[in-house]
């Protein structure tokens, strides 16, 4: 797709020095749909992982196209959450689209899933181009340029995600940041961006309202299947809780708590964060 083609993304045309050509695998989504870039750490904490999933799913089901870079961490989590929610996502690469150069190679299957679910994998680099560190700033400007806003979730002060955020600001687009702990190195990027004018957001609705949209309800209210489920569900909150704490709080036998939590996780009413920590689904 060349910059002169009608199919070339209109939003990308307006940035400084847009790519003359885009190589596309899959289908570019309708340009009239809102696009949101989601970027962040390649090694997010459990908090960052959870925030990415809980923001992206409702935003994607509200019709927003999620744009990211197919990298490890927040990128991959955002793409997967979109696909699982039945949404549309675009992955922007820093090398060629051929199997040999698709980076990271571990995400070839994810790239195929993105295409199979109506999204696209794109690059300004021709087939056969090897990925180099110098390519990523170019990729990041495309991620920002395609999008009406950029959401930053966990990033160090020197993260490449901040290149995407700066490109978005230079293009006059909104930059959204999820605030984090002042003691976390991975919160330095978002917290510093907020100081310089980025928009702090704490719910998906905060982002959607700036995009002129509302959250679509996708889950029916949870109905406990037993007295034990109800007791455990009522003891949980949005803060992570260890299984031992749940046992102490509910007064149920440890074996009952463990088996019931497994059943509830299958129903989607709880989420296992690892290390026997749980939250409401």
How are the secondary structure elements laid out?
Elements: H1 10-13, E1 23-26, E2 35-40, H2 46-61, E3 65-68, H3 74-84, E4 89-92, H4 108-116, E5 120-123, H5 136-146, E6 149-153, H6 161-170, E7 174-177, H7 188-195, E8 199-200, H8 204-210, H9 227-235, E9 241-242, H10 243-250, H11 254-267, E10 270-274, E11 277-280
Parallel strand pairs: 2-3, 2-6, 3-4, 4-5, 6-7, 7-8
Antiparallel strand pairs: 1-5, 9-11, 10-11
Helix pairs in contact: 2-3, 2-8, 5-6
Features:
single chain; alpha/beta; Rossmann fold; Arc Repressor Mutant, subunit A; elongated
How many domain modules? 2
* Overall pLDDT score: 94
Helix content: 25-40%
Number of strands: 11
Instruction: Count helical runs.
Output: 11
Just name the CATH architecture of the largest domain: 3-Layer(aba) Sandwich
Compressed to H and E, one letter per element, the order equals HEEHEHEHEHEHEHEHHEHHEE
**CATH class label of the largest domain:** Alpha Beta
Anisotropy-based shape: elongated
Your description of this structure?
The protein has 281 residues and is an alpha/beta fold. The protein is built from 11 helices and 11 strands. The protein has 2 domains: 10-210, Rossmann fold; 227-280, Winged helix-like DNA-binding domain superfamily/Winged helix DNA-binding domain (Arc Repressor Mutant, subunit A, Orthogonal Bundle). The radius of gyration is 20 Å and the shape is elongated. The relative contact order is 0.13.
